[in-house]
Design brief:
single chain; alpha+beta; 2,3-Dihydroxybiphenyl 1,2-Dioxygenase, domain 1; eight-stranded mixed β-sheet; 17% helix; 36% strand
C-alpha cells in the first residue's frame, strides 16, 4: 500500500437517545440535516453534508437501545474522528503490518437506507476500520470506505443557512499532546506535524488536527468548554469554514443560539451543541 495520507472524511457527535432534540438544535444552528438514517448496527443518525466532509449526529432511537454495540457508546460530544480510505481491506492489512492495533479480524461492513427527494430509499454502504478503542477511551478514530459516495455527498444537502462549506479543524485536549499525537504520527508516518502554542498540530490536507493541553483549551475557550469526565484525551472543538461570518451570525441569531465573536471567529459554546465547541471562520 502506498503511504497513508490523512484526509478527514467526517466527524461524529454522539447524542445518545436525544437524536430528535439534537437534530432540531443543529437546524437552529443553521445546518441543513439529512433525513434520519438507520444503520444495520442499531444506531441512527442525521448528517450535515459539506464539500468533502460531513458532520454526523449519531445516537439511537429508544426502541433500538439494546441493539447498539456498547463499544460504540460514549458520553455526548465530539467522539469520532474519521479518515478516508478507498480500500478497507488493504488499509487493514497495512495497519496491522505496521504495528497499529485495530479492532476485529478485518474491516466491518454495514449499511443504511437513504431517503432521497424522489421518494426512493437506496442503501448507502460502508466499510470501516477502527483503531483499537483502547487508544482513545473517550471516543474513536477510524477509517471509512464510502462504497456509495453518491448517496452521501448530494447537492441538495450541501446548502446550509449558516454558510458552512467544510470542516477545517479538530481540537483534542490532551494532558501530553506530544505523546498523544504519536498515534496519528505512527498511522501517518509522512504527515507534517509541527509545534503550536499550547500543543502540536498534524496537517490533513488543508485541515488541522490539534492536540492541546487543558490549560491551552481553557485559555482559548474558557466557559464554552464542556466539562471533562476524566483526564483522558477528549475531542473538545470543531472548526468549520463558512462562506460568510455575517451569514453565520444571522443564522445563529435566528435560532436564538448563544455565541461570542473572538479574533474574527464565531464561537458557539458546548452547551448549545451537545458537548463540542463550534468555531466558525470565514473562507
Amino acid at each position: 500500500m502506498t503511504t497513508l495520507i490523512p484526509q478527514i472524511d467526517h466527524v461524529v457527535i454522539t447524542v445518545s437517545d436525544q437524536l430528535d432534540e439534537a437534530n432540531a438544535q443543529y437546524q437552529k444552528l443553521g445546518f441543513t440535516t439529512t433525513p434520519r438514517g438507520h444503520h444495520s448496527l442499531g444506531t441512527s443518525n442525521n448528517l450535515a453534508i459539506f464539500t468533502t466532509t460531513y458532520l454526523e449526529l449519531l445516537g439511537f432511537e429508544p426502541k433500538n437501545a439494546d441493539k447498539v454495540d456498547k463499544s460504540w457508546r460514549f458520553a455526548d460530544g465530539l467522539t469520532g474522528l474519521v479518515f478516508k480510505t478507498k480500500n478497507a481491506n488493504e488499509l487493514y492489512q497495512h495497519l496491522v503490518n505496521n504495528g497499529i492495533k485495530v479492532e476485529g479480524e478485518g474491516p466491518r461492513s454495514f449499511f443504511r437506507p437513504v431517503e432521497l427527494n424522489d421518494g426512493t430509499k437506496p442503501e448507502a454502504r460502508f466499510r470501516t476500520v477502527r483503531l483499537d478503542p483502547a487508544y482513545t477511551p473517550n471516543g474513536q478514530i477510524f477509517f471509512c470506505d464510502q462504497l456509495t459516495p453518491e448517496l452521501v455527498w448530494r447537492k441538495e444537502w450541501q446548502a446550509h443557512p449558516n454558510g458552512v462549506i467544510n470542516i477545517n479543524q479538530v481540537i483534542i485536549e490532551a494532558q501530553n499532546p506530544h505523546a498523544s499525537i504519536k498515534l496519528l504520527e505512527n498511522t501517518f508516518p509522512s504527515a507534517k506535524i509541527i509545534d503550536i502554542d499550547g500543543g502540536v498540530r498534524l496537517k490533513a490536507d488543508d485541515k488541522y488536527i490539534d492536540y492541546l493541553t487543558p490549560s491551552a483549551t481553557e485559555r482559548l475557550f474558557g466557559a464554552s468548554l464542556s466539562k471533562a469526565n476524566n483526564d483522558q484525551d477528549r475531542k473538545v472543538a470543531l472548526g468549520l469554514t463558512t462562506k460568510s461570518l455575517a451569514q453565520t451570525q444571522q443564522a445563529l441569531e435566528k435560532g436564538n443560539i448563544r455565541f461570542n465573536l473572538q479574533n474574527d471567529k464565531l464561537i458557539v459554546p458546548a452547551s448549545e451543541t451537545y458537548g463540542v465547541v463550534l468555531i466558525f471562520s470565514q473562507l
